[in-house]
Design a protein that fits this description.
The chain is mainly alpha-helical and 588 residues long. The protein contains 15 helices and eight strands. 19% of the residues are buried.
Amino acid sequence: MSGFDIVILAVVLVLTVVVLGAVLLGVRALRRFGAAPAPEDPAFIAEKDRQEQSLAALRTAADEANSTIDVAKSAAAAARAEAAAAKAEAKAARAEARRVLDDARAEADTVLERAHKQAEADAEQLRATARRSGEREVAVLAATTREQAAEVERRAARMDERERLHTEEVERLAERERQLTAASAALSAREAALAQREAELAEAEEQRRRELERVAGLTADAARTELIEAIEVQAKREAALLVRDIESDARGTAEQRARHIVVDAIQRVASEQTAESVVSVLHLPGDEMKGRIIGREGRNIRAFESVTGVNLIIDDTPEAVLLSCFDPVRREVGRLTLEKLVLDGRIHPHRIEEVHDLARHEVEELCQRAAEDALVEVGITEIHPELVTLLGRLRYRTSYGQNVLKHLVETAHIAGIMAAELRLDVPIIKRSAFLHDIGKALTHEVEGSHAIIGADLARKYGENEDVVHAIEAHHNEVPPQTIEAVLTQASDACSGGRPGARRESLEAYVKRLERIEEIAAGKLGVEKVFAMQAGREIRVMVKPDDVDDIGAAVLARDVAKQIEEELTYPGQIRVTVVRESRVTEIAR
């Protein structure tokens, strides 16, 4: 029996009890009514009316209870019907649940079996993959072993080659020592000959002095002075001959040794070099563009120069203008600004300011990208952002025509190779060489040597003290105290001193040639002077009557020595003295 049936039964029982109570009360009231006093009694009449009302109320309550019982019975019947339907639905649901559970169990068994099969297949595939991976790793290890063996063989071959070169060098030194011994013996023989010659000259001079005193009546002091002058001339001749022989002997081995040293230092580094000047040329689509650049009464060109800080030179050169500025970054910004203005066609002061801002941002991005590329190429990862910005500015900075940023990259590579050969700390030395010219980014803004400026910058932005010392000592403004400073100097000299790396400005080049010709032309007996091969050779034409062969050798030596003392130049300068005798006759 359900809970609802129990509730209905309880309600029916309560209503039955209420009806029975009402009936009992009615029967008791009737009994009282039968034994009541005379109807004439008003109290009896009132009590009778009250009882009749109570009886009517009881009947009404009984009727309502009966109707309620009927409704309750109907609800109970409906509830029993609903309970029966619910029981039927519950039974059907239980049957459906059993069926679904059976299906689920069957499906689970199927899925489990499929999962077992898939797991076995995956395990087999993993075993095959692991087997193939192991085979590949074994092959890689074998290849690595072979490469390492080949590298060991190459190193052994290099060591054998170095040992052979060392042996050859020892043999050359031994041969040189033998040559020097022979030369010393020859010099000793010559000294003996010279001593004998001096004795003979002394005897002849004594006879000459006595003869001069007898014939000319000269005093001893006058004769001594004449003798000193003659000996001085003769000594100069002998010294010139001796110097010429020694120089000829030394020149035979000096060039080979110098070439070997230079090639050994820079043979593994090759960098492109960009030669620039303080003037940039911008080609125009036509000459009519020059008038638009100048503007009405020169308004545009004045605005351009005041905004960019670059001098704009417009001359008779067809379809081209010149931009001049000592600051290469500012000159590049000006060039890009003018190029964008020419392509756009709208040239006026306001447009010049807008385009200048765009060009300046573009150049800054190019500088930043160039600095990052240089750092990646050198292999430096941790560096202060301000130093990166300063390095980017060196993209447009040149020194004697050599791009400074490329020079820093090349110097770092050379220093790294030297450090690796010497088994030193390669990263520190490469960092010192790469940052040694960082001060050139501020030489237009801060007074002082770029080495000192660069050292202050490196110290300011937290660089290692060895790096700072290498920067400040790479031009000997501070004596070098560490191996990093010495290798930075050496790599800087290798990068800047190799042939083709640098060039001088036209003005300095012309002045140097003029000074070379002045030095040679100022000597006695010189007729003509020609500076040839871009100042690498100077030919001096002398008067044959005033200068003999020995005097020509002395003159060449004096000119070369004066050039070495007064001038600064790359490489070497050859001095050639030409003495030509001409005899002319006329046939009549």
